[in-house]
Specification:
Blueprint (H helix, E strand, L loop, with lengths): L4 E5 L1 E3 H12 L3 E5 L24 H11 L7 E3 L4 E2 L8 H11 L3 E16 L7 H6 L2 E13 L20 E5 L6 E10 L29 H15 L2 H4 L12 H18 L20 E11 L9 E12 L4
Parallel strand pairs: 1-3, 6-8, 6-9
Antiparallel strand pairs: 2-10, 4-7, 5-9, 6-7, 10-11
């Protein structure tokens, strides 16, 4: 649909990272190391600043992205990896966003709600079919807090879901979910056979809305076929095929981190018990080990001469393969 992805990566299972690096070379995306806060002036066992940084400082990553592309991109969408925004009011992202923004010139950003879905995906990469996976998407009629698409001319910062302040004279527009919403791949069931079937068809768009929608497709079968053909083109590359036997066949870290976030943050957040809330982030979680991972690395620096203020910064950012993903 005419986009480029910019991924901020703290750590990633090795074969997945190596696969994404191939897609990066093909021009689909850019991978940027996203570093832990590291202070050389005090041992992390005495004081770990990352414990009190919300969701790996996702707001800072999104603001960094906004500023990087501020003068080169017409629009910037901030979504999670399990969020799929499919243009339904136009044939591509540029036309859909332009239609919305140009009809409301004072809007600084538009907000798409999330609609939770269930779907199936094949465990075996050699039999995986993107077409079959997309055909199994079923909406659950459950909405969640959405994500934003920004006009970078009007914003200089943002937060995870939206900026808390915008320039005087500008506004926000929430897209009604009967028109479009983010397809949130909330519940993915891994199945043994993910190969295509003759019955594969376009999924139906059924968001949580009082409007009586007809059985309109989430995306057209033509678009699904194009996505499948591109997936097959990439799969035929020897460097991609070489990685297939090593790709994970289960969610190694997802269950552990999801349960950790539930225990430390979400159950208190949704129950209104805010006094028990802890700052949400992976440093409160116990990560599985003995799994090859690429972790973001850098050369860290700390100044020590300031009485009131010292600077901590990094240079030479990169990735290093290690035994286990770091939070």
């Amino acid at each position: 649909y005419g986009s480029h992805m910019h991924l901020y990566v703290r750590s990633m299972v090795s074969p997945v990272f190596e696969l994404l690096k191939i897609y990066e070379k093909e021009g689909y995306l850019t991978i940027q190391p996203w570093l832990r806060v590291t202070l050389l002036t005090i041992d992390e066992r005495q004081f770990n600043p990352n414990i009190n940084i919300e969701f790996r400082n996702q707001a800072a990553a999104q603001t960094d992205c906004l500023l990087q592309y501020k003068e080169s991109a017409s629009f910037i969408a901030f979504v999670d990896l399990d969020d799929v925004l499919i243009p339904r009011m136009a044939a591509n992202y540029l036309d859909e966003f332009a239609h919305l923004f140009h009809s409301m010139p004072n809007v600084a950003y538009i907000h798409y709600m999330k609609e939770n879905t269930r779907l199936e995906a094949g465990k075996d990469p050699t039999k995986f079919s993107l077409k079959r996976m997309l055909s199994t998407i079923k909406f659950q009629q459950v909405s969640e807090t959405g994500k934003m698409v920004a006009n970078p001319l009007y914003l200089n910062h943002t937060w995870i879901h939206h900026p808390h302040r915008i320039k005087d004279g500008t506004d926000r527009y929430t897209v009604p979910n009967h028109l479009n919403a983010i397809t949130h791949l909330k519940h993915i069931e891994l199945v043994q056979d993910g190969s295509p079937t003759k019955r594969s068809s376009a999924p139906v768009y059924k968001p949580n809305t009082p409007y009586g929608l007809t059985d309109q497709p989430l995306l057209s079968e033509r678009d699904i076929d194009e996505l499948q053909l591109d997936f097959e083109r990439m799969s035929r590359k020897p460097e991609v095929a070489r990685l297939f036997p090593f790709l994970p066949t289960n969610f190694i870290y997802l269950k552990t981190i999801a349960q950790c976030y539930e225990d430390t943050y979400y159950k208190f957040h949704y129950s209104g018990n805010v006094k028990q809330l802890k700052c949400p982030g992976p440093d409160r979680c116990v990560f599985p080990r003995r799994i090859p991972c690429y972790n973001s690395m850098a050369k860290f620096h700390s100044t020590t001469g300031g009485y009131y203020l010292n600077f901590h910064y990094a240079t030479e950012e990169s990735f290093r393969e290690e035994n286990g993903c770091l939070p």
